[in-house]
Predict the 3D structure of the following.
Amino acid sequence: MLRYLTQKLITLALLLFLVSITVFSVLFVLPGDPAQIILGVNATPESLATLRADLGLDKSFMGQYGDWVAHLLTGQSQPSIHYKMPVSELILSRLTVTGPMALLAMLFAVAISLPFGIYAARNQNRPGDVTVMFFTQLGLATPEFWFGILLILLFSVQLGWFSAGGFPGWRVDFWGSLRALLLPAFALGVIRASILTRLTRSSMLEVLGEDYVRTARAKGLTERTVVYVHALRNALIPVLTIMGLQLGQLLAGAIIIENVYFLPGLGRLVFSAIGQRDLPVVRDIVLFMAAAVMLVNFVVDLAYAFVDPRIKLK
Amino acid sequence: MKKALLLGLMIVLMATAAWAAGEMPKKGGNLTICVADEPPGLDPTASASAAIDRVVYANIFEGLTKIDRTGKYVPGLALKWDISTDGKVVTFQLRKGVTFHNGEPFNAAVAKWNIERGAAEGTKNAHPEFFRIIEKIETPDDTTLKLTLKNPDSLFIVHMAEGDAVMLPMKGYENTAAHPIGTGPFKFVAWNRGDRVEMARNEKYWNPQLPYLDKVTYRFIGDASAMASALKAGDVDIIGWLQAPELAADFVKDKRFKVLSGSSVAENIMSTNNKVAPFDNKLVRQAMAHAIDRKAVIDLVMAGYGTPIGSHWPPVTPYYENLTGKFPYDPQKAKELLAKAGYPNGFEATIKLPAIYAYSKRAGEVIADMLGQVGIKLKIELVEWGVWLDRVFKQKDFQLSMIGHAEAWDIGIYANPNYYFQYDSKEFRDAYANALKATTTEEQSKWFKRCQEIVAEDAVNGYLFVIPSLSVMKADLQNWWKDYPTIVLDCTEVWWKK
């Protein structure tokens, strides 16, 4: 176990280093001058030069990369050009929106996909199965932003049950904040549920055909025990893998949904930061997201062992 | 001085009219405004970004002069000003008893410090040239600021009304970008990054009648349809600038809302690289001018909102001359001119459109079609904003582009041959210099009009329309600015009828 952890950590560090080099190089050659974007088109060359020096943009490639890494290693991130505050604080504050939203979305996805997936598997090729598969097909084909807009039109504009977007802040209004995340999380969750439902169904079908399930049935266990205790646990492994990927993806920014619901989350932060060439923000977020995805995958690896004790982590 | 008097009179008249109609402004109420762009910091003296001015200018910060809702420049923190006959000495009489939100007094010494700060070596101000024209600053007493200019500058008073020239407090200025402190009718409360800026009534505002509102919140919603949903759901009270005019029709029909459509100072132009062939040929540019049907462009791109222009000057700015008739829509004439220029079969060119602005994107597509009909085949290339600034604006690597020029009084960019459209005309430079030197209104009017005529005649760029100042609000909101003659969303005199 310890060897496994060290191995994982070394891989993580190595990957982060590669990501940092890639991000930095891409942003370095990306056309667009942050100083020009801040000062506007009619700024004098002198003001531009002053601001560039102030932001450290006049330094060489290695000089700027060194600055960044030095900041990261000492644990304090560079300040955002746009927001004038350390990027780490920005990321943390945005995570309080994106994190809960991603979890909530996964919750919706699991709550929808597991029962429907199992149901469909047990009723293979019967009308129930066909109906469920039809809706998952629909869900796969629906762009989530469009579904998000539909939800706004129905629940906010027509019925007035939810606000059309925005986020009051956890400390200001806890229940209001939770409410604000419900619609976007539902939009994200339903779309992801489509994939998970199909996956649960096919995985379940496969497991239900295994010898040990027949044995379980043969020894007279109830159908309930067979499905939920013996089959489900084994069927969950591929589902877990995809769930992990989905959660990482959600953390890495539900950029479009956050724009539709104008939520101050991580996705919108990175979206606007790219437009404004707020380079410290973009760099740190990409690095953070890479780390987050790796971490989620790591947790999923651990979860395999938990679900199936035969899997040993080496 | 005359202007100040006139304005005073106008205010009295307007107030009387309002009172007669039984519509006295009421105090109280909160206002939530939604705007598309979140400002990059809240310090207008450290950036020319329009997003900053739209939030803080005239609400939190004030300058010596300001531009009113009709486009005239009027007193701000200066009660009045006198300009010597040679145009070189400007004497401001400052308001008495003005304090900053942190309690610091505003006086001539503070004004002097602000101007010196803007002109200083290594200043972060986007426009140090506004201040560097000043040779000498004298403060004979607390309320008199006497400035001696190096040479007369008829735009000096206008520049003092820009966001770059607002007054900051001498002690509390350091953290302006994150916590602005000004003299305006509203005090900064909080900036929830990515979401909103909140401000509250300044109880000690120098005009005790104003402002009417208790609280003003700016919310940043980038997507136009998300904006519209937010207004319909009641999350916001007003869309300060509706960027998708096609959504306006929906609100016009709805009794709960009203739509104000005026004029802004942003000229949407098909910017043309005057140095590259074939656009270095005046005949080609004039041919393009004839090939464009402005009315149709406005209908197709802006759902009919927007005012056509014939030169680089918005109708809401003083000294405007209507030159829209100079090159009427006439495809036949366009073809003749092209033939005369040596392109009887037209030519191919590329238009680079900044993807962030829906209006430029759409206008580009419409124009490509119109030019195609006279034989000019345009290839459309969408570019991201940062790339546009770098490739088109800085490196001048383009043939045609499409962009709104948002700043007021910016015709001076044509006097700079290195500006991205690379227009080089001694005639224009002389006329512009004369306009700046002019000390009387008549002279200024004559030369600024001449400037408009020269760029129109040379068809430097394709002059299309002024972007409408479309605002959509709840029906009870009163006194919002219809036109936006400067880059500002001024809430000072806005009130709720409830």
Summary: DSSP finds 13 helices and no strands in chain A.
